[in-house]
Amino acid sequence: MTVEVKFESWQLSDEQFFKLCQDNRDLRLERSAKGDLIIMPPTGGETSNSNAGITAQLWLWNNLNKLGVVFDSSGGFKLPNGADRSPDAAWIPLEKWQALNPQQKERFLPLSPDFVIELMSPSDSLETARK
Question: Which residue numbers delimit the Putative restriction endonuclease domain (predicted)?
């Protein structure tokens, strides 16, 4: 079950949120466009296996075509609406990757992926996934 923690009285800066994620690598943390902290639980074996397969297929396709860069669920994206999200699998064109400087490549990428896969578990809702 995903937990959303509301932070109406204060907001974490991008730097503070990145540090929070780095200091708590065992947690899967995301942030909504409103700044609320989203704590994602670890997945079960079936979901984890499906995620690995999906990411592998996307990586194999990209490796064959050499069109871009693939990311797994541990990669974060700073979206234009202010949210920080980590989709199960994502892809961006090579030119977007090459346009980033080395510092940007080491942080949550400041862009929306061109292709995203989000595998929904039985406890997920479509409304939550769309956010």
Answer: 15-128
